[in-house]
Amino acid sequence: MAHRGDNPNSREFSHAVVPGPSHMSVIPPTVLVVAGNDPSGGAGIAADLQAITAAGAHPAPVITALTVQDTVNASTVEPASPELVAAQMEAVLADIPVAAVKIGLLATAAIAEAVAAVLARHPGLPVVLDPVLVAAGGARLAEDALVGVVLERLCPLTTLLTPNAHEIRRLAPGRGDTATRAEALRRAGCSFVLAKGGDEADAGGNEVLNALYGPGEPRLFRWPRLAGSFHGSGCTLASACAARIACGDPVEQAVAHGQALTQHWLAHAFRPGRGQLVPLRRSG
Ligand code: PLP
Fold it and tell me: What pTM does this model have?
């Protein structure tokens, strides 16, 4: 069975060379990014734009919400109207051959419904869904009703879901270990689930364990646990994976590649303010 993420069309855009006015230009594949703004530039749409660009694709940003936050924590979430989010997505989809979609903060159940309706009108797009519920500093970013819409409407449209330990417990409560919860989310319709362990400082000792659940055997990834707390690491990883899928990587390869890029950017993180470290999302 072909997975949505295999995306045969993406190769068409990824390395196309066309004559420009004075030089030959490479056309990067486009990732439609649906996410919220973090004015510190550490997480949210700024993280997505940097990671997608550095991973080789062109980001088309659709804003779902404005937040008030710094590198310590968030204090306010002001959602856009669901109609405005849908209209932004439709404008891009009508104009640009989108090769993958990355979804981050949705904030409200109504926005999630609107996003699901747009995706249902454009079937076959690879979708990477980072189910953002709380900020790195712990502040709540989404209403509780969002969880039900993610499970019922978005999971069936999702190629790759990237929950951290907190999120997978919220999405699949009371269902045993991580593998059991990931399988429940696959039954809800996600083709692949990348269960991330970065927020489980007590598990894995000095390693971060991430596990990819898909149609085959689960695949375990081990990364050295870096010192410090990070702002935007989840956004960065999901965006890097979406960019690599857009560039034509099969999902498992995109997940491996996205993690390697993210680990590198985390290893070079900097502290722009008084709070968490921000990954240095640069190519090369
Ligand atoms: N999206 C927005 C707009 C945010 O403000 C945040 C966290 O503050 C996130 C997503 C999730 O960030 P992280 O990648 O640290 O989980």
Answer: 0.92
